[in-house]
Amino acid sequence: MNNSKLYGIGVGPGDPDLITVKAQKVLSEVDVVFVPKSKLEAESIALQIAQKFIPKGIPVVDILLPMTSNKEELLKHWHQGCQRIKDQLQGGKSGAFITLGDSMLYSTYSYLLGILKKEEINMTIETIPGITAFSASAAATKWPLAEGSEKLAVIPVLKDVSELESVLNLFDNVVLMKVAPSFKNIINVLQKRNLLQQAILISKCGHPDQEIIEDLENAREEIPYLSLMIIKKGD
To answer: pTM surpassing 0.70?
Structure first.
């Protein structure tokens, strides 16, 4: 009988103290830790966050998941990642796949989970949630995400910034994730709608170099990749 088990663990946005007690416990007990990487030579932020909870000597296995829009390329690497996980967990071993933020929100883990669920695998899978970057950012800025009957939208990446106009028409409050590539265009939309004073930018939330920018009119154009924005339209 194979008692192999895989945990999907969200390690939060950056501060190791925000990792849940359950996640810390699992990380201290598993046989192997899996780390998603967009490039094999890249340093993993998720691993930096979780490192102090992983005992010395525990194998850390990279899972290459490149950032590309090529669906065939993505599927190939997702399947290769799943196979590597299964190979490592043979013989009843346990492993933890760590990911930034929450494990079930815009997470690399969810793609592998979808494949593993479709396959006939003799493995138990358990998912442990983590604190999202936008909930941690709301706490850091003291900007409530939603109150009363307010409607909240969470938008991952704006392929076309014109989408923001529609979102602002429908929702009271908006969280924009990964705003760096479209930052200048987003600022233009907010200026047009007189919302610059009702938006705030948070970069690298929970990291030592966290930055909160309220004066968006004079913000620099180049911002870190790990940046998000909270917009509250108000009355």
So the answer is: yes
